[in-house]
Amino acid sequence: MKKKNAAMVCFSGGQDSTTCLFWAKKHFAHVEAVCFTYGQKHSLETEVARKIAAEAQVPFHLLDVSLISQLDPNCSLVNNAIRMDEDKPADRYPNTFVPGRNMVFLTFVAILARSKGIHHIVTGVSEADYSGYPDCRDTFIRSLNVTLNLAMDDQFVIHTPLMDRDKSEVWALADELGVFDLVRTQTLTCYNGILADGCGHCPACKLRKAGLEKYLSTKKKD
Ligand code: ZN
């Protein structure tokens, strides 16, 4: 049976997907979280996600799609031998890009959601992010939404509450949702696997920190 007011969140325990989890809790009566292992170097990520889901009181699912890292080992998030790009190279995507990851994640989320009668899917992708990963773009999400509907002869709705928000606006949303401190102290965004403020120098930490500083400075002026 279709559950009308239910959503499944693609969840990693990072700043963006944690903000999305609480956004979903505000907009849907029933929310579940799906987290993935894909061969990432930092297993702490899934433990952080599990803990936040427990605190948010939502059911937590952990799916293993580590086949991705076996198919393409050229990503620094899954291969210790590759030095992480700390700046965006001019001629290619940074090696923190995991090809196909969001397509695989969202497809598995849709299959699991459908089995539970859930048709709303929430993901924290953003076009305003620095990297410009192709599978974070609105065009891709809309295209996949159509494909999932056709593939399963169903009507999914993929929600992307962060699509047009830069990192400072994501902090603002967390604050609006009353989870600013939780996001600041309990999430893991750092590519080097360090909780909260992180290592400070990887691209994810730089982006998170710049966004936080921008948000706090605009907040002071209000
Ligand atoms: Zn870091």
Sum this structure up briefly:
The protein has 222 residues and is an alpha/beta fold. It contains eight helices and five strands; from the N terminus they run E-H-E-H-E-H-H-E-H-E-H-H-H.
Topology readout:
Blueprint (H helix, E strand, L loop, with lengths): L2 E8 L4 H13 L2 E8 L6 H13 L3 E5 L2 H5 L29 H15 L2 E5 L15 H15 L4 E3 L7 H10 L3 H7 L16 H19 L1
Parallel strand pairs: 1-2, 1-4, 2-3, 4-5
The site of zinc ion (ZN) has 9 residues, from helix 8.
Mean pLDDT equals: 91
Order of helices and strands: EHEHEHHEHEHHH
C-alpha termini separation? 47 Å
Rg, alpha carbons = 17 Å
Let me know the number of strands: 5
Helix-strand makeup class: alpha/beta
Main beta sheet: 5 strands, parallel
Number of distinct helices: 8
Strand order of the largest sheet: 3-2-1-4-5
Helix % is 40-55%
Low-pLDDT sequence parts: none
What spatial form do the alpha-carbon principal axes imply? globular
- Distinct small molecules: zinc ion
Estimate the strand proportion. Answer: 5-15%
Provide structural commentary.
α1 (15-27) packs parallel to α2 and α6 (167-176) crosses α8. The chain contains 8 helices and 5 strands; from the N terminus they run βαβαβααβαβααα. The longest helix has 19 residues, at 203-221. The chain is α/β, with parallel strands linked by helices. It has a 5-stranded parallel sheet with strand order 3-2-1-4-5, sandwiched between helices. The structure holds zinc ion (ZN). Residues 190-192, 194, 198-199, 202, 204-205 line the site of zinc ion.
